[in-house]
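Chain X:
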Amino acid sequence: MSSLNDSTRPNWDAELIQIANYVTNYHPSTELAWQTARHMLIDSLGCALEALEYPACTKLLGPVVPGATLTNGARVPGTAYQLDPIKAAFDIGATIRWLDYNDTWLAAEWGHPSDNLGAILAVADWRSRNGASITMRDVLECAIKAHEIQGVLAIKNSFNQVGLDHVALVKLASTAVVSQLLELSREQTLAALSQVFVDGQALRTYRHAPNTGSRKSWAAGDACSRAVRLALIAQTGEMGYPGALTAPAWGFYDVSFQGRPFKFDRNFGSYVIENVLFKISYPAEFHAQSAVEAAMTLHAMLKTLGRSVDEIEKIVIRTHAACVRIIDKQGPLDNPADRDHCIQYMVAVPLLFGRLTAADYEANVAADPRIDALRARIRCVEDPDLTTDYHDPDKRSIANGLNVTFKDGTKLDEVLVEYPIGHRRRRDEGIPLLEDKFRHNLARRFDAAHQQQILDVALDQATLEAMPVHTFMDLFATS
């Protein structure tokens, strides 16, 4: 890896310089990066449209106070809202993330790089409406870079191990690319990036028992809005903090990261967008995606064999360490946010019903006593080999194997899924299904003619890239 040192700015932390240089100087060159960025964009917007069906999400949207809309402000897809870019970033980020159905990146840290679209789309749209020449190609470029910053930092640096949430990386990546969209100077960009680390970072407690709750669904929106605010503050010429990471005793490393500097295993490029994971078939925490696929296979097998779930004595999930750490849960589940982070729940529902949708996390479904009865008979066991393959950069598997034992002592052969449908190794199989998912989500909000108008743009790379951002965002507005 090239040196992080920059002799022209020796007072700035080297890591901040590396990020600023990448945002300023790098231009993605691979067809795969650009195409995957488009697929990521349409999938994320579809997720946002589906989230609008849930009042727990929509109650958070709109102006901070009644009437605080903005002429030529940024649009919130699927709504009539036109807002200042800070609140629009929150709304777009929250809707994309709400159902845990957008893309995923798994490494030492876990996260969802498409979360950054909240900040990117809000600022790009707002600037486009106010005279800046910004096209959707610029949005895709920013998305590629945001994916890379968040994802590369996640490969070797575990924020969860120090109790911090991965949305700290959303705030960092979004601040970096929003600085580019705002045309900040290099010094202003460095100042904005330093403010990210001076900020307090979100605790991860809202993702884990006993505090699992709905903040995990709007935390990314919060990070996006804060990123926009910090970049706008830097645009005024407000000073930055060159040693925000490394200052002894008072810097981020010593205060929040147990004194450990960030580790990098590669230069910034387009690796992350090219290898990102899509959630295509199921709105489930990604470490469970392969388990849900396996459970759907088992559901069909049980029907073929004429056997019932009631006959099952136990199910052992052979899995990897990250799954055990994040989503292996026993006992009561208090809300949808709790249920969609419980692998036992996400296996039990498809075994019983042959499906797993966002609605299956709601209380009316969870009240079915058969779900908890089956959950109690499911346990996870880590397989060190699966953990090794999970971290192997050439494999990046997310494997789960389901082993069923019946009360009469008979067993089924293990159903093992190493690479779920959204994995790069299954990209050819997955993209047509991803486009179908997008079509299905468009139909939730728009009539057939409007759907086709969007599809004519969204499914054509050249047409999409050439379109001004505000024109594209207007396609997703409702009255």
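Chain Y:
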Amino acid sequence: MNIGRPKIIAIITGFISITICVAYLLLITIFDFRTYLNDQLSNIT
């Protein structure tokens, strides 16, 4: 099975873009949860 160089580059680029997308979604989720947690802690006092 012979895979050409452009196809390998396309697969690597796709994998990198999906990884960046998942990392971005995780960061957004974490920061959104922190905002919710800070609001809850502010309401306690």
